[in-house]
Structure formats: C-alpha cells, structure tokens
C-alpha cells in the first residue's frame, strides 16, 4: 500500500480516511508500507493495521503518518526519514525497532501517553495530560530537540527514568511543563544543554534526620526550607573536630549553585521550581589558616545538576585543583530508617587505579546531593563541568586484578573500612588514593579505621604492596559492649589474611573464618587489632626458595629447622606482630630447634640471616 504524489492516489487515501471514521476495519498489508514524500496516511479510530514488514515514512524530504485511536503493528522496523513526521494521538503503535532520522519529527498529540523509548530527532510534546518518559539509566530516552507545548501538558520523568536532550530544549508551559519525580525508590534524571529552561525538580528526603543537599535549579529560594534547621558550612572558620559546630552557619540567602547545605526535617519532598542548572560551575575551596590541618579545609559542596554527577569523570578531567584531595565524604543513613547516621567514603579511580567506597558508594553523586571534599590549600577552585553528568548505573567495581579487603564492625550499628593495594601509593596517607576517617556525632555507632605509617587515620587506605612484615593497624572507637568484626568482601586471594587481637592473643584467618566476636571496654584504642598477611605461595627469598623449612607451622610449642643451603645460620630473630623482638640469637649455626611455649598464641615473624649474607623471612603461627 503506497500513497503516491499524484492527486487521484491521494484522493483515494482521503476517501478511505472518511470511510474509516464510521467503520471498524482490520487491514493487513502484504509486505512493506511506504509513505512517500508529500504523501499523507491518516489512519482513524477503530482501525487495526498490521504491517508484516517495515513501515517507512518519507524518502528524505517529507511524509506524514497520523494516528487517532488506531492500533498499528509493524512486524519490521519503523523508518522515519529526514523531514518526515509521525503524529501519535491515541491508540497503540508498535514496531519491532525504530530508525529515526535526527531531522524528522515525532509529535505526541494525545492526552496521557507513554513515550516510546526511541532515539528521536525532533520530539514535540503537545495535546493534553501527562507524557511519561520510559527510558532508564541503562537505555535512556534520547532526542535531538525537545519542545513542550500547551498549558496543562506535562512531560514527566518518573523515578529511575532518564531523558537526554542533545541540542535545544524548549518549554513553553513553565515550571509545571517538565517534572522530575523523586521518592525512596529513586530519582528521575534529565540531561540537557539549554539554559533558562524552567522545570519542577523534586527531591525526596527521608524524615527526621540530617541530610546534605544542594540545589538543581538556579538560585533556589530559601523559603523552600524550614530555616531553623537549614545551615551551610563556612570552611574559612576554625574546626576542631566532630563535636565542634563553629563552622555551621544559618543560611540567610537563596541557595548557591554547587554549594552543599545541611537540612534536618520531617519526611518531605522538596519541589525545586525554576531554571534548571545545565552549565559549568565553580566553587572556591577555603581553609582556615591555623589549627590542626587534619581538621581544616573541609568544604561542603554539592551536585548542581538534574542528573547524577560522575566523580570519577571529574577527577579524570582535572576538575580537582592541586592542593585538594580526591576522596569525597557523604553523611548518610545506611539503614534508611534513621537508626544510623554515619559517613560513607569514596576514593575515585585515578592514576590507573580503580574507584572504591564504603557501603558500596560508587562515585555517582545523586541529583541534589551535598558532600564534603578536603583541601590543604586555601582559595583554590573546584570546577564542575556539564560533561560530568550521567544517568547513573551502579557498576560493581570488583575486578580480578583489584586487591582489597572490606571489614565491618557491628554492634547493632555498623561501620566499614577498606584496605587495598595501589601500586603508586605509600603506607601513609595519600591524598590521591585514600579517604580520611570522620567520626559522627552519634557515639553509639562503633567506628573502625586504619592507622597509617604516618599515624594518619583513614577509612580507606591504599598501600603499595604486601610484604613479609606488613602489618595494618586497626583503630576502634566505641562504647562499652559486645561487638563483632566481620569480613564483607575479600579480594586478597593470594594471601591468608589474619585479624589479630592483642588483648587476648587470639586471631582468625579471614580466608577461612569471616567473623570475630569480642567485648570492648569502651573508648578509643589503636593498639588492640591489626591485620597481617601470609602468602599462599611462598614467603621464601627466591635465592633460597625451598632450601629452608620451618616446621610445624602452625606450631604449638617448638619450631624446628631444615637447612639445605650451602651456608650456615648466623642470626635468628623473631618479632611479635607489633614489632617487639621476642627472640634473638646472634650465634645460630648449631640451632635446629626453638622453644616458643612461653609465648602467647598469635602470629610472629621470623628472620634468618645466613653467613653468606642471604636473609630468609617467614611467618610463624603459634596456636596451643
């Protein structure tokens, strides 16, 4: 069936149109259906049109297909060529796939309609009612240009749905013409590039707790909030720690783009109404000039966009100025019921490394989310580029080549810490690879952290490699009570990882046991727990591999030696895991046995130096 350019054929189509207005038809084309340039096919109500092949509209200049109460099914592909138009008013339209030219136009002209998840050229929202986006973060709905017409007409982006407008967005309806939904299940997401476009951007907040937030519209009015509980953070003020509220200031003006705010309120949805933020934004990072530098330079910033902000993309692009640290810090309620208000941490991918976060934070900063970043230099500029926007997809960042361990301390409430291997890192704090530890106000939440070689404390710590004497010290801060340390995730598959408790000289191999229970007397302790590692392949120096054996290992009382090298022993030294020398013999050539029965159960390090200068190191596990 083809509508040709000559007048008699066009009249035939028009006659069929008037006839179909009064009669219900089932029409089946024999093959493909083509509407040529300047041809118009108008299929009216109560008609069922089935096309076994492709449906093609236009040949490169024009061509129009209009539906009104029609059910059209194309078993093949919809081809909407340049200059052609498709009007969807009501009824059901379906095709196996769609190939839509960027210079074509699709108009939704009915009442309430779901937008096909296609890649459109020009998309026009007309008619009345709600037009609902159906694409999601994985396969968003995309169009070249978008126009929203007619008052009472709404383009709606529901929770977890996504729309990208690649060129011009026109909203002729005002703030009610475009709405992004938000609820406990997720947020709508919109990426566009046209300034001064009004919309309503909803931001759902769970109730009765503090939230860090930011505005997705330009100059959001303060009247949206209960100002008794709405504050901003003045990083130029002195801060002495978690119990010091000095930098928190009452807010007295409209919200600034890219600034973060703290808000405490009942469960609510904030309707931001105004011009959507779509440009590039900068934020000047401040730092107090004196005091403990670990507490100074914390800046509360925020995602200024109507979509997710990709922190990995920002870091990769150089958005973080020299003098600032890469990690970001969220204040969040991990349980969703107000029972725990704790920090989450994320260290982005940089320098060829992978990104990693506690509580599965993944660097995809939600729309309207505030977060902390630390600078060690005053008055430097953080830049947000519109190209850092994305429709969020949570990716599982674990890779077989990534080596890390995640531990959780639990006592009703929980905290998490991470140790990982990063080639260019150091055993101390690295601003590029680590996240500092922040303590929440709620002391009932047990805290666990890592103490680096420089005594800096971190929630995420990167070390360059595992060596034979590597010890990771764990700090605990908690009230008195019964707790457990458990393994959340382990990707140190070439090592046995031991959690050692100095208080009662006990330990577990986390590769075999994933839970350690203990009683804690309360306070802050940085000497009780540590991690140590044992290679599952060989800890013997390559030069003497297989020629020195220590047995039994684990041992209960004695360890014995087998020396098949060409050199005698010179010195034998044994250290406890905290570095204390418990045994030293500098004249060891005749030694073949050591009695360890006077020492407590635990993990120890042995070092044997041969007369030829070769040094052998290994671990001893003592378990009576």
List the helices and strands and how they pair.
Elements: E1 2-3, H1 7-20, E2 25-28, E3 33-35, E4 40-43, E5 47-51, E6 55-57, E7 64-67, E8 70-80, E9 85-88, E10 91-100, E11 105-108, E12 113-114, E13 119-125, E14 129-132, E15 141-148, E16 153-157, E17 162-165, E18 169-171, E19 178-180, E20 182-183, E21 186-187, E22 189-191, E23 198-205, E24 209-213, E25 230-233, E26 248-250, E27 261-265, E28 268-275, E29 281-285, E30 298-302, E31 308-310, H2 311-316, E32 328-332, E33 342-347, E34 356-357, E35 364-365, E36 370-374, E37 380-384, E38 389-390, E39 404-410, E40 414-421, E41 435-436, E42 447-451, E43 457-463, E44 471-478, E45 481-490, E46 495-501, E47 506-509, E48 515-520, E49 523-535, E50 548-551, E51 558-563, E52 569-576, E53 581-585, E54 593-595, E55 602-610, E56 615-622
Parallel strand pairs: 1-3, 2-5, 3-6, 4-7, 5-8, 6-8, 7-9, 8-10, 9-11, 11-13, 12-14, 13-15, 14-16, 15-17, 15-18, 16-19, 17-22, 19-23, 40-43
Antiparallel strand pairs: 20-21, 23-28, 24-27, 25-26, 25-27, 29-37, 30-36, 31-35, 31-38, 32-33, 33-34, 39-40, 39-45, 41-43, 42-43, 42-44, 44-49, 45-48, 46-47, 46-49, 50-51, 51-54, 52-53, 52-55, 55-56
